[in-house]
Specification:
Strand content: 15-25%
Strand order of the largest sheet: 10-9-8-7-6-11
Shape: extended
Number of strands: 16
Length: 529
């Protein structure tokens, strides 16, 4: 709960003005022979109309004659408001909602925008009801972020975050109060703001930005239109309110301020100038054109990895040589191979940087970019896999400890195939990567580690180190088995082999319970596995 530091003043004529902003005004009517009983939904007064002429011109002049019909436009004979006819008793209730904004000057450098939540309730044959409540306050102070307060009927004004906006309509008193405030006094209001598109949300956001950002007035007067508009619409500009001057606040070199003004504050230009200062470089006009070309041709900001280690001109020369430089004259089909090759180049550089390579000319500008890229993919995958294996072995250390005991129980060989449990967590991870299925995930690793189920490898004896089939087993029941890409190769043969394996496993368990030792064949299988 937050107590306001100022008192909210009533807005003169607000409720009457709000009523005029709603358009749902009706005349309820009931026709009775030659007459119709009418009632206005706004003033609530009743009157009677004659629906048919009497035939006497003198009497017709003295009688109000009009035949009501549904949705026919008319006006109330009592209050004069424009309305539409609606048959009483045959019309559903209507509910309409709108938000309005007024303002209040607090000090010369502080202003409060008041959001009013209003509604109109139209009920058949009844007078229209209106509601107007203070809903939200947005307090703006010069050079600071706006502070939002939401009204709570129990706790009063509660401080909130400046978040969502609604569609507002501004009350005329808002602009009178703004003119009284010193921090808005000399800020010119551009035509785009006067037009008030987006209802009046644009107007409200304009004045919030004008209070928050230093040099907002200067941006408008010097023609940095794209920048102040983006600040108004809350788009990213990377603005620094704590900067000592305008170039520091825009995060650009002072020498770039004039060309930025000439470009009307174009955001693309601003971004390039900010990139120049952020990297500590001094780009020529030709460099700026090169970077702009790279930035406007897909892949977002990936091009920055190339400019981190080489000048824009060297990057362009390399791309021209490799036939990947974008040309304006290229159509879509012709530019597609170049675009794909540039993406390959950016990915290659990023992988090199991630692997910690020294970024010299040999690494930066390879002759065969596709081959070097594919080599880096394999190297990066190997590094990633080694890291995953190490983490898995540390996290699921019981898998290795259980191997000998599980091998005594589950290892077997027959028909040119051998089956055994995983030796450690790293082996399960490798199995999943090579066969491209999910067995290397944490769910299966934790199940094996905790003893809920176990992962067995079924392989050909002639190729016992090459993954073939992965089996998940619990006690003497096979839960599932899959080969590469979650497929089931040699399905009939494998299912028959596993069915026989389970029978032998149960038989072996009975022998152990009777106190008999494992057979020599069983021991040889364990050694081979």
């Amino acid at each position: 709960m937050k107590k306001l530091e100022f008192t909210l003043k009533p807005v003169k004529g607000l409720e009457e003005w709000i009523k005029k902003q709603y358009e749902a005004h009706y005349i309820w009517y009931r026709r009775k022979g030659y007459y119709a009983e009418c009632a206005c939904s706004e003033c609530g007064q009743k009157y009677i109309l004659r629906t048919v002429s009497t035939g006497d011109p003198f009497e017709d002049d003295a009688v109000d004659i009009e035949k009501p019909a549904r949705d026919k436009e008319t006006k109330c004979r009592r209050c004069g408001i424009k309305a539409a006819y609606k048959p009483a008793g045959h019309t559903k209730n209507e509910y309409h909602y709108k938000y309005f904004v007024s303002g209040q000057k607090i000090t010369d450098d502080k202003f409060a925008f008041r959001i009013h939540d209003t509604s109109q309730v139209v009920r058949a044959n009844f007078q229209t009801g209106y509601r107007c409540d203070d809903y939200r306050l947005i307090v703006c102070e010069k050079g600071k972020k706006p502070v939002r307060y939401d009204w709570n009927h129990t706790y009063g004004w509660i401080k909130g975050s400046c978040g969502e906006q609604f569609r507002y309509t501004a009350h005329p008193s808002l602009f009178r109060e703004i003119k009284k405030t010193k921090m808005y006094k000399y800020i010119p209001v551009p035509e785009s703001v006067k037009d008030r598109y987006w209802d009046d949300c644009w107007v409200l956001d304009f004045y919030i930005a004008a209070a928050r950002y230093p040099d907002f007035e200067m941006m408008i007067k010097t023609g940095l239109d794209d920048i102040w508009q983006r600040l108004t619409m809350k788009y990213a500009v990377n603005f620094n309110p704590r900067g000592r001057n305008i170039e520091d606040r825009l995060r650009i070199y002072k020498s770039r301020l004039k060309p930025l003004i000439e470009a009307k504050g174009q955001h693309e230009k601003l971004f390039l100038y900010q990139f120049e200062r952020r990297t500590g470089a001094q780009f020529t006009d030709e460099d700026i054109e090169i970077i702009e070309t790279l930035r406007n041709n897909c892949f977002g900001d990936k091009y920055q990895i190339a400019l981190k280690y080489a000048t824009p001109k060297r990057v362009k020369n390399y791309m021209v040589k490799q036939k990947m430089w974008p040309n304006k004259s290229d159509d879509y089909d012709k530019s597609r191979p170049k675009r794909e090759l540039r993406g390959t180049y950016y990915d290659y550089l990023q992988m090199k940087a991630d692997q910690g390579y020294e970024m010299n000319d040999i690494q930066l500008f390879p002759k065969d970019i596709r081959r070097r890229h594919d080599e880096m993919v394999l190297e990066a995958e190997k590094t990633k896999l080694d890291k995953r294996k190490k983490e898995a072995n540390e996290r699921y250390s019981k898998i290795k400890a259980k191997y000998r005991r599980l091998s005594d129980k589950y290892s077997a060989a027959a028909g040119g195939l051998i089956i055994r449990p995983a030796k450690d967590a790293a082996e399960i991870v490798s199995e999943g990567r090579i066969l491209h299925h999910c067995v290397g995930g944490d769910n299966y690793l934790s199940s094996h580690n905790d003893g809920r189920s176990f992962i067995l490898f079924l392989r050909k004896i002639s190729e016992k180190d090459i993954p073939y089939i992965t089996v998940e087993i619990r006690d003497d029941q096979i839960l599932q088995w899959y080969g590469a890409y979650d497929r089931k190769p040699d399905k009939q043969m494998i299912e028959a082999w596993l069915e026989k394996y389970i029978k032998e496993l149960k038989k072996h368990e009975k022998m152990l319970k009777k106190g008999k030792k494992s057979s020599k064949t069983k021991q040889n299988v364990q050694k081979t596995a």
